[in-house]
Structure formats: structure tokens, C-alpha cells
Amino acid sequence: MSTLEFFLAGTLSAATIFLLAALGELVAEKSGVLNLGVEGTMAISAAVGFVVTFETGNHLLGFALAGVSGMLLSLVFAVIAISFLANQVASGLAVGILGLGLSALIGRDYESRTIASTDGISIPYLSEIPLIGPVLFQQNIVVYLTFALALVIGFTLTHTRLGLAIRSTGENPHAAQALGFPVFLIRYCAVAFGGLLSGFAGAYASTIYTPLWADGMIAGRGWIAVALVVFGTWKTGRIAFGAMLFGMVSLGELIAQSMGANIPSQLLSSLPYIVTIVVLALISRDTVRMRLHAPFSLGEVFDGSESR
Questions:
Q1: Residue 260's pLDDT is what?
Q2: pLDDT band, very low/low/confident/very high, at 73 (cuts 50, 70, 90)
Q3: How many domains would you assign to the chain?
Q4: CB of 20 within 8 A of CB of 197?
Q5: Per the domain annotation, does 36 fall within a domain?
């Protein structure tokens, strides 16, 4: 691969981590639940996925159990925030910290160990197209499935009855309940689905993208995924574009080093977070668009009573 091909192909691969977690958070937020525990969910799932894959050599099993672990941790948050009506911000932060601690415990004996990553799928003929072939048609299957999932989620949220139920629950849970939608069940399922995708994102990070275990390897990607939902103004296509942008920025350190640029590595490593802050600051200035697209009842406690 040339440097340009490596950069573009790596952008898609790096974007997959952000996009998977952001899609899960999007569904949760569309139902009216703000889950800030994505970082911890990804961390514990990365640990579970790596340990299972290391011990069994089965990537599929590692992904499956990582997804289950992410779902279970998200359900802990759901019980606290939805059933016990706790503050969603505080609950999400607490559960996220719990996930980070558990990930360190689970991966304690596997520090710096590596596993074999899975090969990319080389599509005949298309993969031989100059520049485009190595970038688009030699990726890991998880990359293809993630971007396909983005299309499915976007269509579901905007064109199906299920999507209407999720959006109604996030806009006005009292009205949704009056229309016969099971608000609590929808929110539980949305949060669990978000945890499942965050789990897959963590497993992808530790078993395919960087097939080794190191404590803290998620390194803020969960927070960027949460920010991506705001960056994309709760629109699937814009979130996918944002994931590509942050995937590109996250590769800045490798590209700069390959080109011999004399830039401090600490500055390059901080670029994704600097961009996150700048982008969110710019978006927050457009309050009209924020109000237009954000779920109206996002983060609000719903107790099932008739009056609001």
C-alpha cells in the first residue's frame, strides 16, 4: 500500500470504532435516554472480547460475549436511570467508571499480550482497482457490516413504525404512552441495543483494529462517540461523516511519523480531542438546529404518570 492508500483504508477502519458506538448511543438518545457510560461499556467489552478471543482463538465468540457484556452493563444503567428514576447524567458517569474499573480487573493478567487479527475480505476484481480497490474492497467484514448497519438504523428510525415508537418516546413519553407505546420497554431495549453496539465497538478495537490488550486502550473513544451524536445532530448520515472525520484525525500521528514531520507525539495524540472540543463549540452556537433535531425529552426522568 502507498501512504495515501494506507491513510484512506485506515480511516475507514478507525471510523468503524466510533461509528458503532455512536449508532448505539443514537438509538438510546432517540428514545430519550442519555447514556454517558459508553466509554466504560466499550472498555469492559474490549477486555472481555480480547480475553475470550485469546483463550479460545474464536473471534466470533469474542465479539458475541463482548456484545453481551456491553448490553449487561448498559442494563445496569437502565435499571438505575429508568426504573429507579435516577439522574441520567450521574448514573451514566457512575456506570462508565464501573466499566473502566472492571476492564482493568478482567484484563490484568493479559497486559501487553497479542492475538492474531482477522484478515480483510478481498473482493475479486474490485480490489484490484487502483487506489479505490485497496481502500474500499479489502476491508474487514466488520467495517462493511457497520456502514450497512448505519443505513439500516437510519431507515428504521425515519421510515418504520418501530422508529416512530422510538422517536415518540424520546420526544414526548407521556404522549407516546397515551398512544399505547410501552415507553419503559422501548427505552430499556434502546439502551440495551446501544450497549450491544458499544460492546461490538470495544471488541473490534481490541481484537481487530489493535489486536492486543492494554489497560486504557479505549482512550476516550467512547466520549468521542457520544460527542459524534451531537456533532451529527442526531442524523445517521452526519454521524457517519463525523466518524470518518475523527477516524482520519486519529491517524494523524501515524501519517505524520511516516512523513518524517517533526511534531510532538503528545500534540498529535491529542488532536481527536481538540477537534471534538472545537466542533462541539461551533455546533453549540447554532441553538436553533440543536433544538430542532435533539429529542425534546432527552435526559428527562419519566415515571409513567399521566401528567407532565
A1: 64
A2: very high
A3: 1
A4: yes
A5: yes
pLDDT in tens, 132-179: 888 888 899 999 999 999 999 999 999 999 999 999 999 999 999 999
Residue 212 backbone dihedrals phi, psi, to 5 degrees: -155, 165
Grid cell in block for residue 62? 469474542
Regarding pTM above 0.85, the answer is yes
Distance, in Å, from the CA atom of 77 to the CA atom of 82, rounded to the nearest integer, reads 8
DSSP state of 127: G
Q: Is the pLDDT of residue 182 over 70?
A: yes
Domain encompassing residue 54? 3-293
CA distance 17 to 202: 7
Indicate whether 214 belongs to any domain: yes
In a domain, 247, yes or no: yes
CA proximity to 92, closest of 141, 135, 36: 36
Mean pLDDT computed over 42-52: 97
**Distance separating alpha carbons of residues 20 and 208, to the nearest angstrom:** 14
Residues in the chain: 308
The CATH number given to whatever domain includes residue 177 is 1.10.3470
Buried/exposed 268-285: b ≥16 CB within 10 Å, e otherwise: beebbbebbeebeeebee
* Residue 65, in any domain of the structure: yes
Residue where the block lists cell 446501544: 194
d(CA 74, CA 202): 14
